[in-house]
């Protein structure tokens, strides 16, 4: 991977997190090029990371072994127009981190056959603590799959999805998931304050409890249900709190949350495909 040239089309938060992870993995900044329309952002990335920069998508991608599409989904079709000749001539691996854009749409926008990997990262990737679902289109070689995984693994956990339709569920679960956990933490913090706890204490206890629970789940091979049962003494305080959750049918609520997000992902994908037709 250290000998691979990577072009980033778009220099926003996700590109920044990937670049930071790659440099931490000892990839040379000379191997990385970023194309972005914003001069200030280009200069910022050059100063922060020492990467090559360009305002021209095609020029940045000209010598790339991998092109990472890191622009917003709404402008991805226009960005792809700049890359048609380069992609068809050089046949690089194309990795898209744009939510909701299907591989068939990307192939059409890039002029035909292309080796495309879709990636759905999430915002904790900015701290190298992300979770990314990956899907490889037909024609992606084993070596290219390994390469795509190595790039995204620089930001955290990666997981391959065999059915592209499941990328909508990935979007709902891990892509949108941080917001759900933030909302739960927000509610617990607010409830503690209403029970008389100082705001700063409520915040710190909420955040550390969330971090500790996540670490326990990650570092344990046991089901999450088992971990929950171990801290739930019969007749105790935890049991009383959980009973309220069960009476509110928390499983059904979370199921509705994921379904709503998944369905919206499907709707947006259809809209983007029709827009780029």
Describe the overall structure.
- The chain has about 280 residues and is an alpha/beta fold.
- The chain has a domain at about 5-175 and about 265-275: Rossmann fold.
- Helix content is about 55%, strand content about 15%.
- It has 13 helices and eight strands.
- It has an eight-stranded mixed β-sheet with strand order 3-2-1-4-5-6-7-8, with helices on both faces.
- The longest helix is centred in the last third of the chain and has 26 residues, at about 250-275.
- The two termini are about 35 Å apart.
- The mean pLDDT is about 95.
Task: Give short descriptive properties of this protein.
277 residues; alpha/beta; Rossmann fold; eight-stranded mixed β-sheet
Query: Using only CA atoms, what is the Rg?
Result: 21 Å
The CATH homology group name of the domain at 6-174 and 267-275: NAD(P)-binding Rossmann-like Domain
Q: Biggest β-sheet, characterized?
A: 8 strands, mixed
Outline: elongated
End-to-end separation: 35 Å
Q: What is the correct CATH architecture of the domain at 6-174 and 267-275?
A: 3-Layer(aba) Sandwich
Number of strands: 8
């Amino acid at each position: 991977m250290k000998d691979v040239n990577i072009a980033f089309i778009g220099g926003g938060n996700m590109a920044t997190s990937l670049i930071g992870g790659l440099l931490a993995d000892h990839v040379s900044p000379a191997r990385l090029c970023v194309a972005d329309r914003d001069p200030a952002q280009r200069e910022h990335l050059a100063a922060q990371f020492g990467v090559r920069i360009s305002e021209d998508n095609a020029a940045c991608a000209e010598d790339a072994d991998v092109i990472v599409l890191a622009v917003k989904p709404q402008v991805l079709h226009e960005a792809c127009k700049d890359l048609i000749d380069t992609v068809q001539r050089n046949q690089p691996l194309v990795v898209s981190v744009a939510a909701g854009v299907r591989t068939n749409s990307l192939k059409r926008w890039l002029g035909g056959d292309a080796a495309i990997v879709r990636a759905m990262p999430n915002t904790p990737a900015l701290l190298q603590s992300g979770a990314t679902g990956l899907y490889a289109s037909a024609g992606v070689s084993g070596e290219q799959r390994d390469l795509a995984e190595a790039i995204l693994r620089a930001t955290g956990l990666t997981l391959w999805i065999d059915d592209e339709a499941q990328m909508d569920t990935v979007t709902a679960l891990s892509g949108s998931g941080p917001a759900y956990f933030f909302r739960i933490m927000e509610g617990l913090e607010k409830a503690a304050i209403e029970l008389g706890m100082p705001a700063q204490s409520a915040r710190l206890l909420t955040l550390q409890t969330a971090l500790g629970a996540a670490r326990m789940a990650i570092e344990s091979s046991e089901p999450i249900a088992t971990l929950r049962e171990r801290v739930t003494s019969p007749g105790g305080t935890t049991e009383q709190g959980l009973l309220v959750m069960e009476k509110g049918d928390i499983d059904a609520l979370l199921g509705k949350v994921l379904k709503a997000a998944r369905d919206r992902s499907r709707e947006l994908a259809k809209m983007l495909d029709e827009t780029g037709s």
